[in-house]
Target: Metallo-dependent hydrolase
Amino acid sequence: MLIRADFVHFPQLKNVEILHDHVLAVDETGYISHFSPASSEESQTLLSQDADVTVIPRGSFVLPTFCDLHLHAPQFLYQGTGLHLPLMEWLSGYAFKAEERLDADPELAKRVYERLAENLVANGTGAVLLFGTIGVDTNIILAKAMQDVGIRAFVGKVSMDISSRPTYKEHTASAALATAEAFVDRANALRAPLEPHRRLVEPVLTPRFVPACSDALLNGLGELATRTGARIQSHLAEARDEVDLVKADRGVDDFEVFDRSKLLTPLTIQAHCTFSSKEDLAGLAARGTAIAHCPLSNAYFSAKPLPLREALDRNVRVGLGTDVAGGYSIDIMVAMRWAVGVSRMREGGRSEALKHEVQDSTKGADTRSVDIDWREAMFLATRGGAAALGLSSGAFVVGTPFDAQRIYLFDPESLPRGAGALDFFDLGLGGEAQDLSTEMIEKWWCLGDERNRTGMWVQGHKVGPWR
Model:
């Protein structure tokens, strides 16, 4: 496959690269085999040899797909409701109830998960890290739904032997460990018949969070992870009531509980981490553990935001999560916008505090800004999220998987009206063509929606309604 287009990616924080009129080739296994300007000798040779070239015209561009590092698949059932409660009450009144319902009704689970998969594609999500339920069969339904739609999915069967809902838990730590291992085996068997480059769905060990897991279960999952090499996901230091509960029950904080169970590894992604100390962030960096930043759900369920800039400054790997249904939107673009907005509020609070407090001249004030901009948010949603998942995708580099989406801004013949919510009043005046610019991309980042997405590929295969 050959594509000639403008390409945009964000290979590092604050670094947007607009690659005008490039040619990208994808081999039969879905990896990028060539990427250079259309004017280069090699590109010209490829164009002359291949009559089947997809030419994406001016007004559109190709972008890496988004990565969602934290989404509760069964909670898609009641997305956008129940957000008036504190976390621990919400879990009992909404989350556990919905998950138990799907475990008891395979047809409902299939309906919810197939629609979830369709929505992920519609919103440009090419890789997603999913919490499921405690039921093995229901999680296999989830894995099949993701496999059928053709996106990368890391599926976690939830492990929990403690619950505020007595009917929704695994009865013993040993039973929970047995079902976790059974799910890993069945999920691996589901993907085994596929060619290696098509094995896009992977099982993940998923202790729900410390309050729902005994020490015996956490220790056993740590041993299982070591033995199988499986990835790990959970929640860490999300909300005040959760943090206080762990401290009262275990005598130490979340970080210490996970660490002593060998569950903080380079294969671990921890959601939230809003109550993490500087020492905790340094510890996560040292262990290679990544953070799924979920700013929208933090606004509802956490008394404070993630210290995102501080985590990035300490070289913690960070990506974004929607945290449906603690977050009401499945769209990573919403998560990006909230991440920037929350960081701006943090920076405003920091700068105001500096203006009004008396500085200790022996210590000096920390004058580093803590906000992020839209370019950094795009990095977190693409390359940053991919790196957290251990993927080499997220940027256009030869030898990496071609996971991409086509973004439509405007038709040159219909200016100044653009696609969807976009308008470009200063384009097309005097009949002059205008190249794709940073300002155009930022406008889409702020205002764009599903109407601007007109194609998507995962591992070189077209997915979604644009096939």
